[in-house]
Amino acid sequence: MRRAATFLLLGVLPWLTFSAWAGDSVPKPTIRIATEGKCIAPAEEMRRNHMDMLKHQRDKTLRQGIRGEKASLNGCIECHAAKSTGSVIGHDDSFCQSCHSYAAVKLDCWDCHQPKAGYKATGVKP
Would 93 disulfide with which of 6, 30, 73, 124, CB 3.0-4.6 Å? Predict the structure, then answer.
């Protein structure tokens, strides 16, 4: 009985301590939608699939010349850009940048696309 209690304390206590410590060290993403309205898909679907939607639309636009589909980079920016900057990147609380930083995912849309004014002033490179 004593051995089981010791094992439990040694096995669980460090995990609980680490979990409590680690949970406070990573700031949650800032999710503010500047232009309220209905997104093209539910939030959970967008969290999991937005990159596939954008890649699919990118291919249709580049290879077939099809523009104006509902899953477009411009459409996302229109709804999610901060009213103060007109951009979804450039600040830690910007819509795209806050989630991508939280998930440790490189935000590479701007390698090809020019961001709105105010982005370069932050010193963040596209």
Answer: 30
